Amino acid sequence: MSTLENAAAVLTLFVQPGTDALPESLSFSDMARRLTLPKSTLSRLLIAMESQGLLARDPHNRHYRVGHLLRSLSPPAPQSGPATLAERAAQALHQLSARYRCTGYLCMLHRDKVRIVDRFQSSAAAPAIYAVGSHLPAMNTAVGRALLACFSEREVIARLMPRQGRLGGFNQPGIVRLLQRLSVVRGQGWDFNRNETRPGYSALATALADSERREQFGLCLSFVNAGDKGAFPTDKLAGLQSATRMIAQRIYQ
Asked: How far apart are CA 141 and CA 126, in angstroms?
């Protein structure tokens, strides 16, 4: 079978005849059991489909579901309840990445790291730097600092340096500079890094927290920037801030 035929076979697994309900999520084991593809072939295929928006993965159980590219082509199906913070953030990043021709990353904190749980890439964007599942140092990335800014200074220190335990005598220069920057991020609601991942690539990020679910998600746009003195991406910041505010209003209304 061709790659296209294999991809169609995967998507067919999500079809639920006789119902208008949203497609269920499936684990890798579910798919491997129901398809005749070798596991190595299936794994490569799922990675490719996820990178193109045909599939997405749940940030908690890592199951696969229909991606935002396909969902955007069909009218929304009725849902039993309101969309979650993760679903709203993913939808916003899909739209922003297409509008600004860049790559969007949906991220969560994992101890002192940022974990990429979903990726959205415009067909016109430069190649994505990171794959879904990658872990990045929180204190050195825009999205990591946006997420850390959701916590108090004590919580940040406990997360980054759990063995310290107390603030007394805590004066390591790197952490002090980080706490100062987080204070700025809290005040403005976003963070920006020029040349964050490699020369010429910049990142702009915000974060949202759902207190009821006790979860935080970072929204990051990664794009090519014109060198160290390139113009600040005011258009992307305005779009990202607007999307973040709209999600917050819907979640907290």
From this structure: 19
Contact 215, 209 (CB under 8 A): yes
pTM over 0.70: no
In a domain, 79, yes or no: no
Residue 120 shares a structural domain with residue 68: no
Give the Cβ contact number of residue 192 at 10 Å.
20
Residue 55 pairs in a beta bridge with 66
- Asked if residue 111 and residue 204 are part of one domain, the reply reads yes
Our count of domains for the chain comes to: 2
End-to-end CA distance of the chain: give it in Å, rounded.
49
Q: What does the alpha-carbon distance between residue 157 and residue 223 come to, in Å, rounded to a whole number?
A: 30
> Domain containing 224 — which CATH number?
3.30.450.40
Rounded to whole angstroms, the Cα distance separating 117 from 11 reads: 20
pLDDT in tens, 209-235: 877 777 899 999 998 876 556 678 899
Instruction: Look up the domain containing 99 and give its range.
Output: 85-251
d(CA 155, CA 149): 10
Give the tens place of pLDDT for each residue, 155-207: 998 888 765 444 444 457 778 899 999 999 999 999 999 887 677 789 999 99
From 73, 104, 132, the end of a domain falls on 73
Structure tokens at 48: 């490719």
